[in-house]
Amino acid sequence: MSSERLIVQEVAPRDGLQIEPSWVETADKIALIDGVSALGFSRIEAGSFVSPKAVPMLRDGEAVFQGIARRAGVTYVALVPNLKGAQRALAAGADELNLVLSASQTHNRANMRMSCEQSLASFAEVVQLAKGQAVSLNGTVATTFGCPFEGRIDEGWVFELVQRYLALGMTGITLADTTGMANPRQVARIVRQVLELIPASALTLHFHNTRGLGLSNVLAAYEAGARRFDAALGGLGGCPFAPGASGNICTEDLVNLCAEIGVETGIDLQRLIELSRTLPALLGHDTPGQVAKAGRNCDLHPPPATAG
Amino acid sequence: MSSERLIVQEVAPRDGLQIEPSWVETADKIALIDGVSALGFSRIEAGSFVSPKAVPMLRDGEAVFQGIARRAGVTYVALVPNLKGAQRALAAGADELNLVLSASQTHNRANMRMSCEQSLASFAEVVQLAKGQAVSLNGTVATTFGCPFEGRIDEGWVFELVQRYLALGMTGITLADTTGMANPRQVARIVRQVLELIPASALTLHFHNTRGLGLSNVLAAYEAGARRFDAALGGLGGCPFAPGASGNICTEDLVNLCAEIGVETGIDLQRLIELSRTLPALLGHDTPGQVAKAGRNCDLHPPPATAG
């Protein structure tokens, strides 16, 4: 991997859509994933296999995974909370299972109805299930950078969770800023320490732009050595505690940043912008991303007639 | 100045309001400026003295400057395009005149109906007028980081304009990313070079968040040594070429960033958020800032009842 290359994992089909207020048809989800996979992405989080009661918007995970046009070289990831979700995801053909627990015990209980220990025990069952199958396992540490209930999270505890994931046999780790509380100095510090435990190729950073710091945190993580980032087309997603605030960092804003600073993503920015511009019609509302509104820097405008 | 201190110049009353579609009453402008000056700001761009035809929203500059409750220690800045504007601003009692030209000749002709040379010649008249008066002069180089008509701007030309401003006797320089085209690596490079010409105390950076990079650019400039930044409450402002995109970087988002990374601004964040939350009612629309929606990191939420 060149030192000036960054991998974007598209998560709009999962983290982007899950909070949408209106149902998105299975065919539209499939079209979105296929649209993304045509643009140069190597990784797409295509759905989740959680309880349909907890996340009704993603209850059609099986149909989505079975309906997409699989593209060679693209890893299709499924988020799973437990053994049952893992069984469903494997049956549906997911290439990778993304297991999630929160570093905050309070947040984990609120989201998963389990302590962190109970989550890890349930993940051990998933590891057993996955043995010998053509599937990789990624462990996400949610609320790594702060919890809306507990506030700051002890960094030593985050590193311990990373090591527990590694001991279970996970080949990838995601550090997630679930509700947009990270700041760039904290990100740089934590990324540097985690990269003493795992190589950059195994680490993903997941930022939300809830307080406007998403891309600043990407840059801090990138400068600290991280090379893989989650992002959602249009900046979809959101935070239940911040009505109206931004969601995930926006894919096209991230790809534009990379293009401007000379970091390769392998993604076609103009076609990405065009795909993002289809979202408001699909979802019935504006999206928080900026570059889909502003265009690329290289899209110049004619000067007004008075300029002659 | 401590190395971990940053000065925020509030520009909502000028760059924020000038593009608003509906008239804001003079009394409301005055209340906004007085509200800002109570929160710890040392510098406020309170209005402009340009042609009322060009910017009708700010045609009441005299009444605004004469109506505000001047607070000791606050510098009230007026943007002026030429000698006539400078005469009006001085009569109205501005503490500092901010003169603006665009590094892009095409943009300068479009905005000022003059070449850069003609702008500089007109500024020489302003310098003569200001001699012996208790007013300081700041020179802004608009479109420093890119022009929507010309694209990239030659950096050597930007440095030449800075030197021309200094030769004229300006004591402050602003580098402005007028339409949100800057990127953090470019910003760091240009700031480092300009800081070889002037001290950090004389340099202001003016960023727009048009493509989501505003705060990333602030951080890059800060790390390169810059210490003074323009920002607009609520992220007001905008760009005529990017309908719906963000405007100036958002003051409360910037102050929140500083608070989180331990850089002092002297500004009360919570009261700033409360002031920003009055803007939608004043202006009749939502504002792009994030922190006014999300709150501070330290504003914790009760866990849901299921978390027990």
UniProtKB/TrEMBL annotation, chains A, B:
PROSITE patterns: PYR_CT. This is Hydroxymethylglutaryl-CoA lyase. The keyword Lyase applies. GO terms for molecular function: lyase activity. It comes from the Bacteria. Belongs to the HMG-CoA lyase family. Gene3D superfamilies: Aldolase class I (3.20.20.70). SUPFAM superfamilies: Aldolase. Signal peptide: none annotated. Keywords: Lyase, Metal-binding. Residues 6-273 form the Pyruvate carboxyltransferase domain. The keyword Metal-binding applies. It comes from Pseudomonas flavocrustae.
